[in-house]
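Below is the record:
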Amino acid sequence: MLEVIAGKDPLDPRQDEVHVQPYTDALDKDVKGLRIGLLREGFGTPASEPDVDAAVRKTIDALAGLGAEVREVSVPAHLETGAISWSMFTEGMLANIEGNGAGYGLRGWHDPALASALGKFRHAQANDLPPSLKISLLLGAYLRERYHGSVYVQAHALRAELRIAYDSVLQEVDVIAMPTTPNKAHRYEPDIGAAEALRRGWNMLGNTTPFNLTGHPALSIPCAKSNGLPVGMMLAARHFDEATLFRAAHAYERSVDWTTV
């Protein structure tokens, strides 16, 4: 599917030039010689569950047994991405909502029906917005009013530095590995309150948010079960190098039954 849809869409204003590959060719390769960097900061965080960390490390050991070269790598800025993303996301989301999703200043095609529907909805049914979006808009409005966009601009600069930090590590290894989420799925509990519901949702994002900021391709691989709940390992690679992710993931799937690990 990716081979069919990959490539630059001239009507999408968010895209730069897109480099594509014959991705299915990667599925016939093994992982011998593949360099995997175990990201130190992706493990042992306050939100981490020991069984999740252990399962992912065991998966890395399995890939090493298949011929991959594994070593630990470090990106200290990985732990700062929450602050960077919140500074950007909240003000950016506020601007997007207030602009009715019209994407002012961006070239490409925009949906007039979407702009009209969002513009009417946000005035008539704002109370129906989920708590996560409400608090994001409130924080975005506060940051803009108090700091006049300077926090947003600073976050953009830090975003660029974060991208450079991962790029530097990815010159030494082919992929970076870590748990997809630091914990297993939370137990459903009704009536826990909005604050706790938000905390439970956001404490799972520590390893996924960074690559939303930097644009590095990342792939989650089911790798184990713990207490009946699935555990995922995430691999991130160089920009436009999705083929390497498929190579590693498919080699693991062919060799290991993750449901019995």
